[in-house]
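Run log, item B.
One chain of 219 residues. Sequence copied directly from the ordering sheet:
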Amino acid sequence: MSTQNDNQEETKRGRPLDLSRNKVILTATLDLLAENGFDALTIDAVAARAKVGKATIYRRWSSKTDLVIDAAAFMSPFEKLEEYLDRNQPLRGQLIDMLSFIFQCDDDKAQNTLTAIYTAASSNEKLDKVLKNEFYWRHREAMASIIRPFLEEQHQLIEAEFDLLSDIGPALITYRGIFVEKPFDRAYVERMVDMLMIPMINTLLSEDDESTSAINDTL
């Protein structure tokens, strides 16, 4: 990330950064993204909200895009996902908890921020690339860690099947946030899991009635 590179550069120049300011600046960036979106975001506005000089920001980030990239990583839920999930509960509960946590369904401001970042990524190649690495692949890893253990004895998921299962959550939630402009809450996630994901998993197992019956007991 750009922050780390800038920190190293500052250290080389003998002027160590006050790292406590990074959090203040990134928080201000996220707040402004939620309020105004990416296009309206300016370094001047971030500096004013964070109560720092513009030079303080530019010593850490060379552009608005680099700043937003680090802000997106700063709000990423994946580092805390494992401690949040209860791996002993049924598959349905784990899927609902994971998707609700990743998309921060109980936080309207976080949803607005995510929507602003996703919208900007569609026309910003650098942001899009980082977002895919930071979110898309980590989301797939989280999905795999939940789904594969439940299916490994009954069904060997092929890549196309896993792609579809993994894409359902991000596709519907980002569509709802960006195009329909409606909030997504835990109840919406529950409907998505109950009406799409669990039925799809059962369909994959439908060729073996005994396996389907067995996994239904754990859903």
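Observations after the first pass:
- The two ends are 39 Å apart (CA to CA).
- The domain at 76-205 is CATH 1.10.357.10 (Tetracycline Repressor; domain 2).
Flagged for discussion on Thursday.
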